[in-house]
Amino acid sequence: MGKPDLIIETRALRRRFVTHKPLVGAQTEVRAVDGIDLRIRRGETFAIVGESGCGKSTLARLLVRLIDPSEGSVIYDGTDISRISADKMRGLRRDLQFIFQDPFSSLNPRMTVGALVEEPMRAHRIGTRRERRARVAALLERVGLMPEHANRYPHEFSGGQRQRIGIARALASGPKVLIGDEPVSALDVSIQAQVVNILEDLKQEFGLTLIVIAHDLAVIRHMADRVAVMYLGEIVEEAPVAELFTAPRHPYTEALISSIPVPRVGARAGVATIDGEPPNPIAPPPGCRFHPRCPYAQAVCRAERPKLTRGPDARSVACHRHAELSLTGLAPDIAARSPEAEQRFSLYRAARATREGAKPSGSFPQPLTPDKE
Amino acid sequence: MPEDAPLLQITDLSIRFGAAATNLVDGVSLSLDRGETLCIVGESGCGKSLTALALMGLLPTPPARLMSGTAMFEGRDLLSLSLQELQNVRGDRMAMIFQEPMTSLNPALKVGEQIAEAVRRHKGVSRDAARNRALDMLQKVRIPAPEKRLDEYPHQMSGGMRQRAMIAMAMANDPALLIADEPTTALDVTVQAQVLDLMRQLQDESASAMIMITHDLGVVAEMADKVAVMYAGRIVEAGPVAAVFENPQHPYTIGLMSSMPSLGDRSGKLVTIPGIVPPADAMPEGCRFVSRCPFAQPGCALAPPMREFDRGHAVACWRAPLETGVDAPSPEIAGAA
Q1: Tens digits of per-residue pLDDT, B154-196?
Q2: In-domain check, residue B149
Q3: Is the ipTM above a cut-off of 0.90?
Q4: Mutation test of the interface with chain B: which of A344, A345, A347, A359, choosing the one with the most B Cβ atoms within 10 A?
Q5: In this complex, do B258 and A351 lie within 8 Å of one another by their Cβ atoms?
Q6: What DSSP state is assigned to residue A155?
Q7: Which residue of chain B is at minimal alpha-carbon distance from A262?
Q8: Interface contact A205, partner B, CB < 8 A
Q9: Per-residue pLDDT tens for B52-66?
Q10: Start and end of every ABC transporter domain (chain A) (predicted)?
Q11: Each residue's pLDDT tens digit, A197-230
Q12: CATH assignment of A1-43+50-89+228-237+246-331, given 3.40.50.970, 3.30.70.270, 1.20.1420.30, 3.40.50.300?
C-alpha cells in the first residue's frame, strides 16, 4: 500500500495559554490543544468538529501558524513550519489561506473590496497592477459578486456577500490549502448553502485541500471526506465521514450524533443524550477527559488517559472500551423523504436548473505567476 | 369564553418601522390551542422575532408601529393592553424565554431571588414560599445542587445552566403560554438536546402551550405540533408539522429544505435558493418571494392569499401544488390590482 500523499501533518502538537498570572505562586494555564497528531491528505476535505472550548479554533490557527505552538510541529509539504523564520513563513502564506467565521469583523472596513481582494497579491508581489485588477474582477465574479463591487466598501454588503469577499481574498494568492474556521455558521440556511457550494466548486477547480472547522454536523456530513472529533484539546476519534456518522466508535461521537436535531418528524424522539456540559479546560478531569459525562465509563477510564490508536481500517479512536462497545449512529435511511416531498424537490431542482441555464457558468482564470519567477 | 376557543388567536398582525413603506410583519394570522407547540421558522429578518416581541408587548413603539391586528389571549387583546395590564399578564399567564440568557437575566440578582421575585410579584406569597417555589423550579429543570444554585449569580453558571434557570423562571407561575425565541441557538449541540428534552417534558407536565421561534428545521421537527414558515414578514406556509415536512407546498419551504445539508449519503451539490431577501425599501408588491422563486410568473405580482387545501395545511402560492402546473392569475389581472 502506497503512503498517502500528506499535505499537512502535525506531531504531538500542543498549545497552552496562560489564563491567570498572579504576583506570586503558580499561574493557571489552559491546554487548548494538547498533543494532536493529524495527517491531512492532499486534495481532501478534512473536518474538525467539537463543541465550544474544545480547542478546534486554536488548532486551525496552529495549522497555518497564525499562532505559534508551545510544543510539537506542523509539517506542511515536508517543511516544519513551526521552526522556520517569519520571513520564510511569509512566503508560505501564499499557499495557506484562512477564512474566518465572522464576515463582519474580518474585513478592514476602510478598504474597498477591490483593495481587500488585491492585498494578498500585492503582499506576495504577484502580477502587475493591471493583471491584479483583472484578477480581482475575475475572482469577484467567480464567488458570485460583480466586478463593479470592487469599488464598494464591506459595510455595503450582506453577511453572505461579505463571506464571499473573504473567500475571494483567500483565493487571490493562489493557495493550495484553505482553512475555514466556521466559514458558514454565521449565515442563514439559504445563504449557507450558496457558500458551501462555492467552496466545493472552488476546491474542485483549484485542486485545493480544504480544512473545515465546524460545530454543525450536517455541514460536516455534507462537505467532509474525513472527520476528526475533538474534546477538551484532544482528538477522540478520526474516521471517514460516512463511517463516523453511521458507526461511531467513541462515546462522545455517539452523543454528538444522537444530539443532532434531525429535520424529519419523529426522527430523534426520546433518544437519551449525555448529561452535563464540557468541564473547565483549565482543570480537565484525570484519565479519559470524557469520563465524567460518559455513560460507559469504568474504573480504568477514571485512572488512565486513553491514547488515540489507529485501527487497520483507517479509523482512529481514543477509548479504552471501544472494542467491546457497540455504539449507535445515524440510521441509513435518515435522509429518506416522503414521495410527495421527493417529487417537489425534483420539480424545484429542475426549475432552478432551467432558470440557471440562461446564465453562463463562468470558468476561472489561471492564477497569476509572481514577478520573481 | 367558550371552551373550544383557541388559547391564542392572532389576526392580521402588521408591524412597520418608522416611515418605512413596507410592513416588516405583514398580515400574520395564527392560532394556538391549549398545550400545543407552534414553531415559527424562517431566516434572519423574516419577522419571526418581531411577532413574538409584539405579543409580549416588548416592541419599542416608536420606532415600531402597529399597523393592524389583534391577538386574543384568554379573552383579552394582548395588542391593546395598558402597560399595567401587560405587566400583570407577563411572567404569569404568559412568559418568555430568550436566546441569550446572559442578557435577559439580571446580572446583579441571585438566580433564586429572580425566580422568587416573579412568583411574589404575581402570586403575592411570602418570601419563604416564593423561595421554596424557586428551589422547586430549579429541581424541575434538573439543575444539580439546586440549594446552592439559588444563591449564585448568573455569571457563575454555564450557558446551559443559565438557560435552565431562565426556563425555571418562565415556568414558575405555570403560564398558559410560553414564548421561546431561539432558546437553544446559543448552546452546543449536546446541551441543546438536553434543553429541548427538558422543555418537552416540562410542557407535557404543565400543559402550557408554546410558540417557539427558530431558524432550525431540525428543532421544528422535534418540537412542533404545528409550524408556520415565514418569509420577508409574511407566513407563506402553515400546517401540522408532519404535513409541512412530508408534503411541502411553498417554493420557499421546498427551497429551504433542499438548502439544508442532508445527514445521509451526499447526493451532489446543495440545491439552493438564489439571491438574498430583498431589502425593505425594495420589497416586491405581490408575492415577496418572487425575486428568488424558480416558479415565478408575471401573475405573481399579485399577492397570493393564504389558502387551506388540506386540514389545517395552508399555503400562500398561486402555483401550489407545483406538480399540477397551475398558473398564477394572468398578468393583466395582476396589473389591474
Answers
A1: 888 888 888 889 999 999 999 999 999 988 888 888 888 888 9
A2: yes
A3: no
A4: A344
A5: no
A6: G
A7: B218
A8: no
A9: 999 999 988 888 999
A10: 13-257
A11: 999 999 999 999 999 998 889 999 999 999 999 9
A12: 3.40.50.300
